[in-house]
What does this fold into?
Amino acid sequence: MSDPNQLALVYLAIRSGLTGCCEWVDKEAERVRTNLDLKGLTPEYIRQRLQQFVAEEGGQVEQVPETRPHFSHREYYYKAVIPEPGFRHGLFVELELTDDDPDVPSVTLLNAHPQRR
It folds into this structure.
């Protein structure tokens, strides 16, 4: 069962452009910086590209039921697959809705890697 209200908040957070509404977890940002599969893409670029993809290109974010045991604290995670030169199947970005304030929601970026088919 999906939750369209939460998904709407994810879109609002990404599109807002406000500082703090769409940010990386520091530990994950550091992991992204050292991931050679990302071909030098930085966490800052990935965040900016996600915002552009959603706000300007009409890109889709998918709400996925969380089934991984180590993430049992959340009901869903969110993912976007962004077209990116040099990435045959796109760039996978994983997010979590971390503040469901209806006026100023926030998401946290948790992971990015080349999309695998």
Summary: The longest helix spans residues 4-16. Residues 88 and 115 are 8 Å apart (CA to CA). The beta strands are 22-24, 62-65, 76-84, 87-99, 106-114.
